[in-house]
Amino acid sequence: xxxxxxxxxxxxxxxxxxxxxxxxxxxxxxxxxxxxxxxxxxxxxxxxxxxxxxxxxxxxxxxxxxxxxxxxxxxxxxxxxxxxxxxxxxxxxxxxxxxxxxxxxxxxxxxxxxxxxxxxxxxxxxxxxxxxxxxxxxxxxxxxxxxxxxxxxxxxxxxxxxxxxxxxxxxxxxxxxxxxxxxxxxxxxxxxxxxxxxxxxxx
Length: 203
Prior knowledge:
The protein is 0% helix and 43% strand. It is an all-beta fold and 203 residues long. It starts with 19 loop residues before the first strand and ends with a strand.
């Protein structure tokens, strides 16, 4: 579905004629990574999903407030993350299960599809995950986020009710990046996150 609410494909060009090199879709939002390294998002913004410092819904691609160019992006159920060109990670949006991997700086109001209102821990601007350096890949699902270190090790954080973090913990939420211990060896290959599992394919 497009931001215009139509089933017919609609063109959404990036500002300044930038060229998208990656496009990611979240639960309600879409973000694009431009060849310049800028990240643009559109859609609902009531819990900071756009990363522009506001809670105003955006109906065209709007830049996230990142301090430097990004090389990869990942979207979850109400949050987004960017891998920057210095191999650090910044995340923004919903943070009720600590899926940002950093402390929230505010709370955001939210109304779900049933009309039930509440508030979520959130960040309207990208926050740095201070524990993550030398990262080469990021991935997200509904409430969990993972990053792959340059050594091949995988770190995850967020919702862990079904063991998504992969560290054999029974804690419902994990607030900081935790290394997966369920694999025989880190190895190479891309890290991916399923709805209730995280894994690293082995060569």
